[in-house]
Amino acid sequence: MVDDPGAKDRSGPESLQGPGSADVGQQMNTLDIDFVRVLEDLIDVLIENGTIRLTDLPAQAQQKLTQRKQARRRLRETLDLIGEDDEII
Questions:
Q1: Is residue 89 assigned to a domain?
Q2: Whole-prediction pTM value?
Q3: Contact by Cβ (8 Å): 16, 25
Q4: What value does the mean pLDDT of the chain take?
Q5: Based on the structure, what is the number of domains in the chain?
């Protein structure tokens, strides 16, 4: 089987027919995004306590984790409305 990220899995919730099927698909997408974050946090904990090393993961997984960490760091920096030099009143 070829892993084609552009291909749609016809067996997923998006393929459901009938009223509310788009809502189910959207809910599943939201749950998947939340679950990915849980997995990222779990991997971080396992690495921090020495259960696994980042290098134990396949190269593609290492790259994706690193990219997501960098993106979250940039997002946090963008959302930092109070800089280090700002005084909190």
A1: no
A2: 0.59
A3: yes
A4: 79
A5: 1
